């Protein structure tokens, strides 16, 4: 009897537990459904209960995207609910601020519309409430890349928060204390919208304080650690305000090598005339930090003053290959700041003049920079450089490459002879240059193919690489039975082109009475996987 009584008690307990669980499940279900209510207060209460019980994330996991979108609306209602007051006791939970952080979870959702709902909700949060503001600032340096990206959008998009004074000040304070916030925080402060809307007036004085403030107990030491000072220096560069240049220059004299490296990079980013001397000194100092020198070169390319250009050209003789490459890139930017914009005469003329330097390195560096600028004004000097066979092959190749840009028809007549240059590498780059010039070079290349000389091989390669635009010219050459040599090279180029439309002229060539022409055409049809003519 006692044993049965125990069984009965156990069964009752199980029923009670199951009942409680079912009741709890129904309660959670009701709260989830209420978050989709049209009543903002009801949404807030439902979200609050789930946040309080630490079940918010679990309650929406596995729910439909629509339900998770409603959850974003509910969190917005909670974050903006003034009736939800933080307790006065120590470590009292701030549920409104927690609602903001719960929104961060939605920024990681697999569904785009849920992520968008999270971004939209965060844009509408009342950040005059300090708890909400603090949570948003925490999101800037969140450990999850999706959260950082979403929060950056909330802040910087046209309908986002923007550079409000309270936020900017709070963010700089956070960057001072937290290494993870410094990089993304600087990106936010230096974003186009923040800069345009005057973030510098708020952020620059605070960042300069972080970077330069001395320990009140020991004036020989800095108040903030090296990481905080570096982060402030980096953010100043991203903001790009010229008022920071002189303090950054002073930092080069007083701070650690780590902070100095960041400071020179920031001076380069700001690219103001007041920082030119410091950048020139960094480029010239072969014992300076390697990365700092590369960044200084980029800054001089932005300034593009006569002294900056001269310094960069002189650095083509630097023993550091990366330094030389950085100077090439900097001068290319100086010569054509915008991709499709006009070339700039001052750096362009300086580079053309540098092709006559007594230094082979300077001449080669100048040719490499001119290749990126792609300006016909340099044609004559580049042609003279590559035609001079006493020049180093690397320099000649650089000059030929610099002539190979779209529509540079003026260079074609000089590049065609380079297809038979005694140096195989020069022949290769001449072919590639003619490909880059495009249709303007096609007729001249076809003419070479008719001759059957050794350079016809390179000409056929160039035409084939020009692709479909050269198909008509090749088809005409293929139909010219009076020139079987040209027909053979036409067959080679048509096969190498690798397009289906090349099949028809190859089929005709495969029927040629000239056995060499027919053989080449049949071989190329096989390459294309097309049936051979009979």
Distance between the termini: 103 Å
Task: Give the count of structural domains.
Answer: 4
* Residue share in helix: 55-70%
What does the overall shape look like?
A: flat
Q: Percent of residues in beta strands?
A: under 5%
Tally the helices. 31
Query: What are the segments in which pLDDT stays under 50 over at least 5 consecutive residues?
Result: 17-24
Number of separate strands: 2
Structural class: mainly alpha
| Mean pLDDT level | 93
Sheet of most strands: 2 strands, antiparallel
**CA-based gyration radius:** 35 Å
Order of strands across the main sheet: 1-2
Condensed summary:
70% of the residues lie in helices and 1% in strands. With 534 residues, the protein is mostly helical.
Q: Would you mind describing this structure in some detail?
A:
This protein folds into four domains: 33-84 and 92-161; 162-214 and 221-270, Leucine-rich Repeat Variant; 293-403, Leucine-rich Repeat Variant, CATH 1.25.10; 417-534, Leucine-rich Repeat Variant (Alpha Horseshoe), CATH 1.25.10. 70% of the residues lie in helices and 1% in strands. The protein contains 31 helices and two strands. It has helices at 2-34, 40-52, 56-60, 65-79, 95-106, 112-124, 130-140, 145-156, 165-177, 179-189, 192-196, 199-212, 226-239, 245-254, 257-270, 276-284, 290-303, 306-314, 321-335, 345-354, 360-373, 379-387, 393-403, 412-418, 424-437, 442-451, 455-466, 471-478, 484-497, 503-509, 515-528, and strands at 214-215, 218-222. The chain has a two-stranded antiparallel sheet with strand order 1-2. Strand 1 (214-215) and strand 2 (218-222) form a beta hairpin. Helix 16 (276-284) runs parallel beside helix 18 (306-314) and helix 21 (360-373) runs parallel beside helix 23. The longest helix has 33 residues, at 2-34. The radius of gyration is 35 Å and the shape is flat. Mean pLDDT is 93; it is low at 17-24.
């Amino acid at each position: 009897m006692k044993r049965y009584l125990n069984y009965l008690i156990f069964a009752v307990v199980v029923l009670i537990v199951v009942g409680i669980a079912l009741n709890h499940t129904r309660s959670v279900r009701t709260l989830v459904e209420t978050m989709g209510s049209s009543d903002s207060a009801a949404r807030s209460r439902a979200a609050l209960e789930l946040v309080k019980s630490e079940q918010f994330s679990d309650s929406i996991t596995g729910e439909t995207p629509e339900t998770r979108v409603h959850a974003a609306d509910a969190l917005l209602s909670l974050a903006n609910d003034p009736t939800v007051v933080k307790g006065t006791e120590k470590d009292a939970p701030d549920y409104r601020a927690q609602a903001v952080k719960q929104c961060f979870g939605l920024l990681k959702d697999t569904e785009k519309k849920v992520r968008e709902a999270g971004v939209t909700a965060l844009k509408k949060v009342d950040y005059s409430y300090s708890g909400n503001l603090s949570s948003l600032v925490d999101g800037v340096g969140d450990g999850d890349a999706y959260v950082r990206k979403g929060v950056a959008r909330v802040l910087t998009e046209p309908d986002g928060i923007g550079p409000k004074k309270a936020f900017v000040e709070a963010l700089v304070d956070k960057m001072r204390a937290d290494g993870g916030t410094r990089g993304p925080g600087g990106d936010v402060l230096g974003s186009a919208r923040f800069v345009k809307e005057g973030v510098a007036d708020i952020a620059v004085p605070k960042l300069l304080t972080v970077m330069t403030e001395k320990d009140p107990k020991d004036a020989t030491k800095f108040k903030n650690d090296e990481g905080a000072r570096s982060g402030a220096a980096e953010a100043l560069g991203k903001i790009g305000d010229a008022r920071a240049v002189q303090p950054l220059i002073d930092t080069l004299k007083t701070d650690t090598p780590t902070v100095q490296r960041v400071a020179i990079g920031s001076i380069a980013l700001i690219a103001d005339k007041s920082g030119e001397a410091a950048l020139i000194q960094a480029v010239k100092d072969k014992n300076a930090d390697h990365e700092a020198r590369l960044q200084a070169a980029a800054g001089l390319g932005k300034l593009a003053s006569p002294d900056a250009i001269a310094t960069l050209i002189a650095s083509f003789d630097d023993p550091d290959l990366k330094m030389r490459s950085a100077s090439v890139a900097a001068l290319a930017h100086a010569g054509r700041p915008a991709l499709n914009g006009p070339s700039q005469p001052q750096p362009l003329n300086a580079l053309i003049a540098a092709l006559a330097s007594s230094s082979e390195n300077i001449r080669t560096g100048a040719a490499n920079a001119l290749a990126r600028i792609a300006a016909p004004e340099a044609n004559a000097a580049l042609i003279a450089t590559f035609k001079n066979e006493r020049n180093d092959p690397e320099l000649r190749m650089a000059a030929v490459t610099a002539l190979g840009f779209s529509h540079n028809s003026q260079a074609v007549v000089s590049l065609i002879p380079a297809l038979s240059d005694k140096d195989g590498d020069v022949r290769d780059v001449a072919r590639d240059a003619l490909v880059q010039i495009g249709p303007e070079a096609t007729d001249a290349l076809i003419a070479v193919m008719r001759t059957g000389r050794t350079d016809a091989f390179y000409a056929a390669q160039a035409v084939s690489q020009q692709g479909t635009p050269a198909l008509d010219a090749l088809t005409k050459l293929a139909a010219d039975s009076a020139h079987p040599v040209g027909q053979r090279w036409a067959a080679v180029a048509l096969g190498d082109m690798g397009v289906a439309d090349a099949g028809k002229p190859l089929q005709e060539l495969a029927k040629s009475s000239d056995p060499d022409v027919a053989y080449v055409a049949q071989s190329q049809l096989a390459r294309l996987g097309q049936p051979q003519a009979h």
